[in-house]
Amino acid sequence: LVDAGLSSVLPLAPLTGDPGLITALVERWRPETSTFHMPFGEVTITLEDVATLTGLAIDGDAVIVDIPDEDWSAMCLRLLGQAPTDLGGGVIRITWLRDTFDELPLSASPETTEQYARAYALSLMGGVLFSDRSGGSVHLQYLLLVEDWRRAGRFAWGAAVLSYLYREMGRSALQMTASSSLGGDFGGWAALLMLWTWERFPHTSPLHAVTGAQITQDAVPRGIRWLPAQTRQHGDQFYLYKLWFDECPTFVVSI
Questions:
Q1: What mean pLDDT do residues 127-134 have?
Q2: 146-164 pLDDT per residue, tens
Q3: Cis peptide before 221 (omega within 30 of 0)
């Protein structure tokens, strides 16, 4: 995972999205410009934000998947060593991955170790970085991205994650109504959106939920400094967040 350039994401993976905060943000998202429309002007998440908050590479090869000639079951067996019986259309359940590859055997061979690492990377991509709205499945096409670890290390993962998040926010913005709440119906890395908001709009952050001693100001990547906040119980505070963004008392220009 270090070779693939994904290790910086591991400590951030447990962070979950706040439905109220995400809904309030998506309400202000404009797909035409890929920006949030705020009272003081337009702002957006940049590649620099992604690199600073997550440590993912923003320079490198484009994250492109070439669909294989072999069928999905054969590819799954070749790269994971196992395949589910109900594999249809190349979609695999994340729960199956976690149950099947729960713990690496102590006597595992190098080949088996790589298979477990690929299974973990696949669940990371499907459940966190490129999650879809179901939140429970991932397409096996992502498995091809970690077939060769060194090739994976040349990918601009941060750029791919951001463009995917842009697309999902655009879809959500177009489908929202005045009375709708996104809840879990949101694709992309919701925690990245949340981290960016906490950094740029301090009045929305959960700083009150943790002590100053727990917040590490010089953490690398910077998103790690918010890990103590992951235990905060998020309520549906959509209207509170909406009010905050309507007023926007503070916006941090650089992080």
A1: 87
A2: 999 999 999 999 999 999 9
A3: yes
Coil, strand or helix at 173: helix
Sheet strands side by side (includes 29-30): 29-30, 35-38, 41-43
What is the tens place of the pLDDT at every residue in 62-120? Answer: 999 887 778 899 999 999 999 998 887 889 999 999 999 999 999 999 999 999 999 99
- What's the number of CA atoms in the CB half-sphere (13 Å) around residue 240? 11
Q: How far apart are CA 245 and CA 122, in angstroms?
A: 35
Return contacts of 162-171, CB within 8 angstroms, 24+ apart.
162/45, 162/47, 162/50, 162/192, 164/129, 164/130, 164/188, 164/189, 165/45, 165/189, 165/192, 165/193, 166/34, 169/25, 169/26, 169/29, 169/31, 169/193, 170/29, 170/31, 170/34
Q: What's the rounded mean pLDDT across residues 178-188?
A: 61
Q: Which tokens go with 93?
A: 């359940």
Q: How far does the chain reach from its first CA to its final CA, in angstroms? A: 27
Residues 6+ apart with CB under 8 A from 2: none
Exposed e or buried b per residue across 176-204, where buried means at least 16 C-beta atoms within 10 angstroms of its C-beta: beeeeebeebbbbbbbbbbbbbbbbbeeb
The residue count of the chain comes to: 255
